[in-house]
Structures are given as structure tokens and as C-alpha cells.
Amino acid sequence: MQSIKIVDKQKIKDQIREVEKNFQDDLKRYGVQNAFYKYASEKAVIKREKDSLIFGNLGIKNYYSKSAYKNASAEWKPDFVDISDDGSMAYTYGRYKWSFTDEAGKTTMSTGIFHTVWKRMRDGSWKYVWD
User: What is the value of pTM for the model shown?
Assistant: First the structure.
């Protein structure tokens, strides 16, 4: 008979909220490209403009190497976090705000809703697999 593992969902939700906060802090500190790369799993996928899919952490790093992201910043906070029954997956959603400053110093804003799927890695860390 297989034993049932009890998962402390609130503890894991708190971990995910902390990972989201650290992701945002790293984006501010180290830039968009580095943060999106750091928190992506090797097989992560992101959906961006015109429903384009970008595959893998290296593809994501390359995508965010565009000059538009060099002076960009983002803010977000999950409004909702849920965890799989076994504690290996999580998802978040909420509102985000991007700021882009061009070479002339003009800043434009973009807002919307984000949805991120997180997976616990073998080492216990959390990486996003979908954003």
C-alpha cells in the first residue's frame, strides 16, 4: 500500500509568493533578461506579442536581449496562488505593469494580466514552465 504524503499547501503558497517577489526584485536589480532566464525551467515556454511562443530558457534569454528591454521594468503581484495536491506544481495570476524607456528618455506603460505556472525542480527550487 502506498503512503499518502500530506502537503502543507499554505506553506507552499507562501513559497510561491516569495519566489514571485524574488523574481520581481531580481528583475529590478539585474534586468529583465537575467531575471526571466534565472526563473525559467530549461523547457519553459512564454507567450508574448501576437501570440508568439518562445521556447526554453535560452530562447527566453535571447528574446529579452532586445534593446526594448534594456531600460524596461516590471511590477506584479499574484492575486491568486493555487497548488497541486502533491505540491509539485503551482500557478499564479494577477496584474502586471511594464515601463519601457526609449533612448530619447520617453517612457511608455503597458498593463495586463499575467498567468504563470510553476514547477518544483529536483533540487527543491521553483521555476516557471509557462508565463
Answer: 0.92
Tens digits of per-residue pLDDT, 53-78? 999 999 999 999 998 899 999 999 99
How far CA 36 is from CA of 6, 51, 105, in Å, comes to: 32, 18, 24
The answer to whether the CB of 74 falls within 8 A of the CB of 32 is: yes
The CATH number of the domain covering residues in 9-130: 3.10.450.50
List CB contacts of 82: < 8 A, sequence separation 6 or more: 13, 90, 91
Q: Report yes or no: 81 and 91 within 8 Å, Cβ to Cβ.
A: yes
**pLDDT of 4 strictly over 80:** no
Asked if 40 and 128 touch (Cβ cutoff 8 Å), the reply is yes
Specify whether the CB–CB gap between 70 and 83 falls below 8 A. Answer: no
